[in-house]
Fold this protein.
Amino acid sequence: MKTPYQILEVAEQASDAEIKQAYLQKVKQFPPDHHHEQFQLVQQAYEAIKDLESRTQYALFTVPEADFNGLLKQAFGSGPAPSISTEQFEKLLCAGVDAKRFNIAASETVTAR
Amino acid sequence: MKKKKTPIKAKPNTSGGICDAAMAKAKLDAGQYKEAIELYKQLLKQADNKEWRSALALCYFKRAMSLAEKGMIKEAMVLWENYQQNAEPPYQGYDSYIAWLLQTNNAAKVTACFGRLSAQQLDEHYPNLAALLGLLIVTEKPELEAMLPKDSQFIAHLVSVRAALAAYRNNEPEAVEQALKQLPFRSAFRDFRTLLKAALLLPGSVEQAQAQALLTKIPATSPYYQAGKLLLATTLDGLELVDELLQCEQKPRQLIGTIKKFSKKQLELLDMLVKQKDRLSDKIKFNCALQYRELFGEDLAKAYCLAALATYPAGQRDFNKHFGTMDEFEHCRLMALNYEREKDFHSSDYYWQQGIAQLKKQGESGAFKIALIMRRIALHQPSSEEGVEWLIDSLDYDPGSRETYLKILQYYEHEPEEAELYKQWLDRGMKAFPQDVDLLAQAIKAATANKAFKKAAQYAKTLLKIDPVNTFAKQVLFTSHLAHARKLIKTKKFHLVEKEIQQAEKLTLGKRYQNQAQLLRGFFVLLAEDKKQGLQQIAEAAEKMNDGSACGYFCVIVEALLMGLSLPSTLKGLPQPPKNYQLSEQEIGRLVQIIQQYYGDDKSNTAVLHQALEKIKAIIKQSIKQKTVSEQTLLMLAECLDNIGHYELLAHCAKIALMQWTKPIWLFYKFYAEVDGRADQCSSFNIERLKFNYAKAREDSDHRTAMRISRFIDEYYEDQNPFVGGFFDDFDDEFDEDDEDDEDEDFDPFTGGSPLDLFEHLPTAVFEKLQKKLQDIMRKSSPERMINTINKSLSKPIDPSFILLNPDAFVALLMLQAAVELGIDTGVTGDQVIEFGEI
């Protein structure tokens, strides 16, 4: 789950003006009529950190989320798209030959001598 | 242990096998092939019936397919061969049979079968077998190629496949494309083509989506499906990838790891996740975050562990070891939030207060946080009174919070006994925020309630300067002008009246208000200028203001009474509602509106309203008898009459309503009106009936009525015994039936509690810790030694007789000692315990 700072892409030390600027840019990027959900996220993020009081409230009363999936996402995060060597491609094909693959569906009525 | 086969005996052939044949057919139809096979075999022993043999063959085939589905390939093969012996060509499932032979590596039979396989069969009749053979030839069994018909399309396509693979090996994408183009849609290598095309697209990030789209086209029944799935997995990242890998076997998982160039640590983490897949406890996740923090990043791992401490507090030591000791305030904050999440506000308050103590050490810089925490604590207080105390305290740390002022005012506004405090807070608020719209509105309301119309008008004017369209301010100003105009008429200062009315009219509030001003002008003309013209103006205004004559008549009476005029002479010459006049439902609604408006303008108008209602009482009584008046309208009228305390009409309303609707609210209004709203006058019998109706209202989820009844019953009991709480005190606030903690039958209002109550604020966990330590101390030390230790912490040594007389105080003092030894700040001092004990 992203923090309001991450959603608006501002530093935690950003000023009111910087946060507002970032918010307006995001609203331009995600206008409510086309990106309703994204816009709502942006809106909520802005409300959470728009001024000193809300930022202090956020810092004091937000329950930090123990997001294990977030850790895994980080550990196996996006890397460059892999290129597959012939050997790897053949291994992939071999990995596909398992017992289940042999149980093919019988074809419709056929002739066998 | 093998099960003994129980041969199914065929019945003696009494009717030429017809009975057995029917039974066998029934078994076949029911899918009980094993039993059907036995029965048909018995039948065929009696006679070689073509139909029975064909049915037996079908049984063998069906059973073969069903066993193959369960993975019992060898048994399936035997059954299919039995099928072949009993059936006439064409045979069903020949391709499946060959696939089973391939799986069991039965080379001799495979060779024999392939020897009988024609090119047409391979290319056209057995597409699934052809696809499987294609995959086997390019992977594990290239020798199969030699056994297949050379003239088949399959072999021709295999050449293209090989060419594509060779080009792929030589990194010649165009040649790959060229070779793959030779494979038509109906080729046995169709899915191979898709797979290789996708592999070719992969390195590019833009083409990745195309590759993914291609791979999803491979059907789940294809022999290439698994390979496609794995290739698709290599395009995933993050959680999606992990999910996919956790479903894979070890070999393909490792292959994907190699393709994705996973580090040793990543592979280790993956193995750990696979091993712990279904039992990833908070502890395992916490330790995992610590162990693989170089993969997660120090900051993310720390943030995770910090948050995870809420559900895995035992990790605190490891956390401190790896990330350093946690800031004391942060610890308190997390504990408080954790308890809040569990709705244990008693414990969360404790930790918030500990946190506040930490922040106080920071001086000015912690003040704002302290104020916010105090406001947070206020939200969770069991009573509004305690909540407002926290709010008030918070202003010491952040005096600039207008919301806090408003909340405090809202509280005192609804506490009639705290009128003075309300006034004080309003003054403080107005001083701090003289231009605040909400505070000005509060000030207007307060001034109006105190009949300080001039002051109210001043506030309203200020408010209108800030917010020129503020309707509330306009209404207040309007009421104020009219009230002033009435006063002027009453005191016969006629020369100032018109100006006042004009000022009221200038406030654009709508027709209804204009007509009300016009009505007052009528009175002014009547008294000061021309009686006839005045009467006419009054009649016109009253008519315009209301739909029917009764409401207008009522308005005129109220206005006359407000100006202290004699009713007979004023009403003489004005149209009056006919004797049998009946108010429509709409008119009843309007009448309620008028009453509420006058009552809202000035609460002391009640007597005037009662007097005016006397004049139309008969009409109202007659009107509500009509069946056409809805319960909602009647309820609205009853609530209005309750507000102004007109119990006679209220009783009549309840009586009429109870004839049609037997709801708790009506019974309540009946009893309530019978005693003029005085609970002390209510009979115990009626109170018992109300208790029953209270339960019924709750059952019906009519919380409003339940609350109303409970308050009345409370008043009744408070009047019976002013020293104990009301009947519903324990659960009045939140209707919490399950909360048995408050049931305190032995509570004696004349005695204090125990000194141990001083520790009541501690969370259960802390209290239990102290108790454990206390037991330790009591076990290890003699009483004399314990008293000596306690005395050291007190400003004045205690007398041993005090301990004999106050065993609870002694335990409380030992609790304090336990707290000192455990390093827990309880906020309680020894002197406080002594003081409490002495009481």
Notes: The two ends of chain B are 83 Å apart (CA to CA). Chain B touches chain A through 97 residues (CB under 8 Å). Residues 50-69 of chain B form the longest helix (20 residues). Chain B has 46 helices and no strands.
